[in-house]
Design a protein that fits this description.
DUF2489; about 85% helix; mainly alpha; rod-shaped; transmembrane helix; transmembrane
Amino acid sequence: MLDFWQYALIAAVVVIAGLAFYAGKLLKQLSVQTAQQQQAKVARQQALNKHDKKVLDSVLLITRAMKEEQCEFDEGCWRISVLLGSLKTHTELEQKFPAIFGLYEKIKTLSILEERKKLPKKERMQQDYQRMKAESELHDNIVIELELLYQFTSEQIEYLSPSA
């Protein structure tokens, strides 16, 4: 006959085996969850990179047009500032390109498109003067920054492009 200690030992072995099985099951679930989180993180980063590459492609196009004098500086700086502000993986570009962002800051409150057409002639001329004055103050620095921006944008596009 089995005595009390033998029953206790069998019960302990059964309990320990059950706990070991449960612990193994939890570790497997944790492993799966960790893998899913890693995949989600990679997918999110890929989505951010895809967004930024699209934005940087546009910035590169506008920068090239500005360098070739096919786009006015005020319009180009406006567009570039808005685009760079929408980047998901870069920050503090205002410090890197202060003249471009500076011109945008000076002209962003001025009327454009239909709103500008509705202005009285005198007010429209005043805004044009403000725009031209701001552009002339920052022109030389913008020309320098366009080269830096072109290089920066090209490097970032290369970095964000999937390897072939």
